[in-house]
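Researcher: Here's the sequence for the chain we discussed earlier.
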Amino acid sequence: MAPMASMAHQAPLPHSVAFLARRAATALAAVLVLGAAAAPAAYADSPSASAQKLPDGLYGSKDPQYDGVWRQSLALLAQDTVGVRPAASAVNWLAGQQCADGSFTAFRAEPGKPCDAKSRRDTNPTAAAVQALAALGGHGDAVKKAVSWLKSVQNDDGGWSSMAGSASDANSTSVVIGALAAAGEKPQSVTSKKGKTPYDGLLTFRLGCAAKGDGRGAFTFQLKGAAPNADATAAAATGARGKGFVVEPAGNAADTPVKPLNCKDGDKKAGADDPAQAAEGGDGYLVAQLGKNGQHLLSAMPGAEKQPDVGNTADAVVALAAGAHGAAAAKPLKWLEKNSADWAKQSGPAAYAQLVLVAHATGTDPRSFGGTDLVAALNATGPEPAAAAKKDTEEADGSKDGGGLVVVWVIGIGLAIGAGIGFLLSSRKKSRL
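Model: Thanks. This is the structure I predict for it:
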C-alpha cells in the first residue's frame, strides 16, 4: 500500500478519465496474459478544446475532449439528487450534445454539426446522459431516442461495449443497465437478437466458486480468464441489482451482513445465473479487498506504483449501500471523508458529483463530508444553479479549476496497448514463417 503522502507527488486523474484509464490498463493486462485483445476504443470525435473557449454551461474548466458529457451528466445528476436545480445553460449544453440517432459521443466541439460515420458514439456517455436527463425531467424524447440507440447496439451476449461492435465489458454493461432503469425500462426485458438479457451479459464476467485465491465473487473487466478487477466488480455489483449512479439510502435496512458465495460441496457454478447472488459475491470480494488495504481500494496504472484509488473506493461504497450493507460501507466511507478532499479539488466536477452520490447512498450529509461542503464545491465548478442556497453557489477553494484531463495518461496507455497488440501480431506472423 502506497502511503497517502506519496499521492501529493502524482497529479490525480479526474475520476471520469481515471475510469477510462483503468479500462485501458485492464485491456493491456489482458493482451499480455491472453495474447489477444481488441484495439483500444477512442473516446471523442472532435478536436481538442484545450486551446478554445469552453462552451457556456459546461462544468469544469479544462479540456472536455474525453469526458465532457460524462462529467456534465454526473454533475447535473448529483445536483438534482440534493435538490439543486441546475442552470438552464448547463442542461441545454448536455441535451445539445446528442446525435440525431440518440447517441452521445464523449464531447462534440461543434454540436450544430451533424454526427456522421466518423463520430465515435459511445455507450458510456450516452448511458450517463440518459440517467441525468431522465432525473431532471422535460427531456422525454431525448431519453427515448438514447435508449433506443443503446438497445440497437446491444451485443448478442446481452451486454454492451463502450464502442458498438466491440466485445462487451462489465463496466459498460453496468452503466447501461443503470440507464435503462432510470428511463423506466426493465433491464431483464431488454433482450439481444439471441434472447440474452443485460444480466446474462454481465454475469459472463463473474468469477464464481471456480476462482482461485481471493478472486471468488469478483468480476473481470472483459476477457474470460482475466484477473479480478475491483473497478469492474464495484460497477457490476451495483448494476446486477438494476441500479444506476443514484442509489437511494436503505435507512433502517442498511445493516444487512454481506453474504459471500456459498461454494459448499465443490459447486463451482453456485449462483451462476442469479444476479442478486452475483452482486452479493461481488460485495464480498470488495469487502475483503477493502479490509486488506486499510479500507480503500488500490489502483496501479502501467508503470506506476499502486496507490489508493479514491474514485474506485467511492464506487465500492455505493455498491455496498446498494446491497443495504451499511456496516460494511461504514469504514470505507470514513476513509473517504478523511482522504477525498484533495482528490476531488484537483479532479473537479465528476469527483465532487461522485462523492455527493456516495453521501446520498449512505445517508450522509453532503454539505459536511469530512469537513467539505460537496454541494457548494460542485456548484462552483459550473454556472450558477437556477435554484440553490446562496452558500451552495460560492466558490469553494478554487474548485472551478477542476474537471481537467491528464491526456498524457490516456494517450500513453493507448499507445502501450497498441504496441502490445502489434508485438503479438508480429510474433504470430513470424511463427508461421
